[in-house]
Amino acid sequence: MSRIAKHLLPDSAKANALGHLEIGGCDLIAVAEKYGTPTFVYDEAHLRARCQEAVRAFGTHRVVYATKAFLCGAMARLAHEEGLLLDVATGGELFVALNAGVPGSGCVLHGNNKSTEELKMALDAGVHHIVVDNFDELDRLDALHASGAKGAKRVRIQLRITPGVAVYTHEFVSTGQDDSKFGFNLRNGDAQRAVDRVRSSSSVEFVGIHCHIGSNVFAAENFAQAAQIMVDFANQLEVEELTLGGGLGVAYIEAEHAPTITQWAQSLAVATAKLIKPTKVFVEPGRAIVASAAVTLYRIGSVKHLPGIRTYVAVDGGMSDNPRPVLYDSGYEAFLPARAAADRTEHARVVGKHCESGDVLINDAMLPSSYAVGDVLATPVTGAYGHSMGSNYNKVTRPPVVFVRDGVARVVVRRETFSDLVNLDVADSV
Question: Of 87, 132, 317, 420, which cross-links 64 as Cys (Cβ 3.0–4.6 Å)?
Answer without folding.
Answer: 87
